[in-house]
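Thread: Newbie trying to understand structure tokens

Hi all, I'm a second-year student working on a class project, and my supervisor (Dr. K.) asked me to get a predicted structure for one chain before our next meeting. I've only ever worked with sequences, so writing a 3D structure as a token string is new to me. If someone could post the tokens and maybe explain what I'm looking at, I'd be very grateful. Here's the chain:
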Amino acid sequence: MGYQYLLDIIEQLGYIALFLVLCLGLIGLPIPNEAVVMTGGALASSGMLEPIPAYLMTFLGICSAMSFNYSIGRFAGSRLFEWFMRKKNMSKYLEKAQQLSDKYGGLSLGIGLLLPFLRHVMPFVAGTNRFKYTRFAVYAYPSAFIWTLIYFALGAFFGINVESISDLIYDYGMIVVYAVAVVGGYACWRWLLKPRIGKSDKLKRKM
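---
Reply by user tm_fold:
Sure, no problem. This is what the structure looks like when written as tokens:
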């Protein structure tokens, strides 16, 4: 249902829909970020959207959501943090985010992107920990660029199968991405090697 809902929004609003859905995803829209970015890649590969504007809108949407959560944590974080910690559903994510922040510092923002709910929580925790904006930006935006590029490319590669693949990634995280990367890498290697194998066979026959 979420996938069709996303397609309807894109049909009505065009490129800006990718930005808005990602930017507003933190309020509970029923579409995982992975599905949005991969759909952008799939539509770009099909010719329905231009690749560069589609990628930029998805990248900026992710950056905007991260920046908003960072700002909330920076300017109103202490009270909200205490309030969230009293909520069982939220406290476990905050505790995990704080542990990652304590252990990895700014790198935790990139790590948080790999995990569906933590990608919203990590910028908030960075704000409550009083990360300077420049430090936040140095870690957050390049991480968002790479994360968006990976899923955008996966969407372009899988095309019409993007919904089922995004569901697997949402459920099992980067394990699926690594598996896909290994399979894709092997396929590319075989494809590149094939002409050489053919030439080698021809030479053997001549000899």
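A couple of things are worth pointing out once you decode it. The CA atoms of residues 181 and 187 lie 10 Å apart. The chain has ten helices and no strands. Feel free to ask follow-ups in this thread.
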